[in-house]
Amino acid sequence: ALRRSKIDDETWEELEYALIGADVGVEATQELLDHLRERVRAEGMTEGSELLDALKGEMKTRLSGYDRELHHAETSPSVWLFVGVNGVGKTTTIGKVAKREIDAGRTVVMAAGDTFRAAAAEQLETWADRVGAECVRGNEGGDPSAVIYDAVERAAAINADVVLADTAGRLHTKVNLMEELRKVRRVAEKGAGTVSEVLLVLDATTGQNGLVQAQQFTEAVDLTGVVLTKLDGSAKGGIIFAIQEKLGIPVKLVGLGETVDDLVPFDPDEFVEALFA
Amino acid sequence: ALSDRLEGIFARIRGRGRLSEDDVDEVLREIRLALLEADVNFRVVKNFIARVREDLVGSELSKALNPFQQVVQAVHRELINTLGGETLRITYASRPPTVVLMAGLQGSGKTTNSAKLARWFKSQGRNPLLVGADLQRPAAVEQLRTLGNQIEVPVFSEPTDPVSVARAGLAEARRLGRDVVIVDTAGRLAIDQEMMEQVRQISEAVQPHYTFLVIDAMTGQDAVNTAEAFHATLELDGVILTKLDGDARGGAALSVKEVVGKPIAFASTGEKLKDFDLFHPDRLAGRILG
Ligand SMILES: Nc1nc2c(ncn2[C@@H]2O[C@H](COP(=O)(O)OP(=O)(O)OP(=O)(O)O)[C@@H](O)[C@H]2O)c(=O)[nH]1
Ligand SMILES: Nc1nc2c(ncn2[C@@H]2O[C@H](COP(=O)(O)OP(=O)(O)OP(=O)(O)O)[C@@H](O)[C@H]2O)c(=O)[nH]1
Ligand SMILES: [Mg+2]
Ligand SMILES: [Mg+2]
Hints:
Chain A starts with 8 loop residues before the first helix and ends with a helix. Helix content of chain A is 48%, strand content 16%. The relative contact order of chain A is 0.16. In chain A, helix 2 (26-43) crosses helix 3. Chain A is built from ten helices and eight strands. Chain B has helices spanning 2-14, 21-37, 42-57, 67-83, 110-123, 140-150, 162-176, 193-206, 223-234, 251-260, 281-289; strands spanning 98-103, 128-132, 155-156, 180-184, 210-216, 238-242, 264-268, 276-278. The interface between A and B is large, with 41 and 44 residues. The structure holds guanosine-5'-triphosphate (2 copies) and magnesium ion (2 copies).
């Protein structure tokens, strides 16, 4: 809330700090505030509260109008690929999405596509047991594409609706790992499956690197959306503003905790209100 | 990069022969933007810029042959001073074992770096024991056991509760004659009162000689909140900075160092257990400046 009642330099500074502090980033913040300055001139705003409302309204407008559905393909099984850098919440998110799908009456097969990290398959298998989904895994160190291919074949055999494919965390700076991911995406469609979602899982505590991640991952595997995790913490996840504006990639889901039910659809209004709370 | 931004300004003022107050302000504005883009917390940036201004005001820039160089050097110097200071030298407990506690947010790299640290202690001639006190994340203990096997370090855990596991792990280390104990804990939010109380109790139970906050190098503005809360609850001895093999500028490290006032002890630079070493402030300083 703006402490000053009349708009002055301190008012603008407070707004700048709120945006920067929320990881909206320098460029997006400057752009938003420059646009707001024009509106103040044009509309003759004088109160700090008017200014905050105008900024919130502007951000909400810019964040709305995106496709936030998780799409199923015309023919089953659909394949939803979960990608992202290390430790962001991909495996946990798959557990939550599986529960969501099962509650909606659909059958889910999980693919343990992280064949690299210690106990990755065991972690996913635990989630599968918890929600009542099948989990197809391979051997540690095996080919991730083969695991996902097998999972899709299994899903087709049992008439499952969706394959949730887990992948190993990887930094976009690793050329060979991004190439491996491209192959994973290609192979996921070789069999009976159709890739209808490629979701970047992004940690809300991430700073400006989040935009770089989105740029690199979409270049590699053509992202359909973002899952913003750990928004139950104090971080605001403001980097998604630039991700949506610059790359047109919508945030579809938000992770709000570590249990199976802690997943909600992304709501632009709630997000903007929380940013300034 | 900061150098490009500053070059533009200096090219314009070079002809004038002396630097005015306004010129210095303009330069400092560019440095501020570069640091914010590097994820340094905006409050930390404010204090940092004030310090750099003091350096520059006293340094007779207008008389310098190459004022541009002087500014970049002043910023670089101030960054290294803030990030560095004394390297953490591990001193071992006179009555073993030396207890190390690993804490931090979810997914920051605690479990992997517990194993990396164990491997590092082995290279120093020590005999560590890993204690898996994360009983909440699915397969967390398996993860630690798998990593322990890779480096032939024993792993202790039991399905009781985190505080009891930590305590029992310490007893086990004494029983086995291990001289270092590394306690891995569950990731937790700094604003989760219950979980922060739990880690405080773990600390109370094992009285660590070293408590490390494990921080992801790509963390943004919120790093300050995290560092303050963990430091208030646990009294940190150092920070372990992870995922430095990415291209995040790493400004969170500056924020954390500023707020906690304890050394960044180690740097994790990859997914393999060998990608781990003592922290070098000069490398990070260059990276933050961009
Ligand atoms: N508070 C909170 N924690 C979360 C959320 N999502 C995931 N986590 C936690 O984040 C940590 C990492 O989650 P994982 O699912 O293992 O992340 P990952 O991306 O699969 O990690 P890698 O496979 O190692 O790259 C775990 O401790 C999760 O419980 C969330 O929305 N909120
Ligand atoms: N690229 C890279 N990955 C790392 C580094 N350190 C850890 N990781 C990876 O980061 C992910 C998370 O590591 P964990 O050790 O599971 O993190 P954690 O803090 O124990 O996670 P929680 O217990 O869920 O809070 C894993 O995929 C690790 O392999 C690093 O320096 N570089
Ligand atoms: Mg995973
Ligand atoms: Mg862990």
